[in-house]
Amino acid sequence: MRAALRVDGESWVPVLETNATLTYCAVLEPELLASSGPIALDLQANLDEVMAYAALRSANARALEAAGVRYAAS
């Protein structure tokens, strides 16, 4: 994980970089990709990963705010 400040015009923008997060998992059959109609997917959400990232982002925002950095969520 890496936290940094990026200059954007006259503002400093906090940037939080982390490892990739697997948020959904689905199995696709190759013949479905070749079909002309819409594809229905059975997505399996990885809520543990999603919630862990949300908690990390929230903690980062609180730490920046406590240090006097104005944080604007994108």
Structural descriptors:
single chain; elongated; 2 helices; 74 residues; alpha+beta; two-stranded antiparallel sheet
Helix-strand blueprint:
Layout: E1 2-8, E2 11-17, E3 24-25, H1 30-34, E4 44-45, H2 47-66
Antiparallel strand pairs: 1-2, 3-4
Q: Could you walk me through the main structural features you see in this protein, from its secondary elements to its overall organization?
A:
This protein has one domain (about 1-65). About 35% of the residues lie in helices and about 25% in strands. The protein has 2 helices and 4 strands, in the order βββαβα. The protein has helices at about 30-35, 45-65; strands at about 1-10, 10-15, 25, 45. The chain is elongated.
Mean pLDDT: 79
Integer-rounded radius of gyration: 18 Å
Q: What is the tally of beta strands?
A: 4
What shape does the CA trace take? elongated
Write the element-wise H/E pattern from the N-terminal end onward. Answer: EEEHEH
Number of domains: 1
Portion of residues in helices?
25-40%
Count of individual helical segments? 2
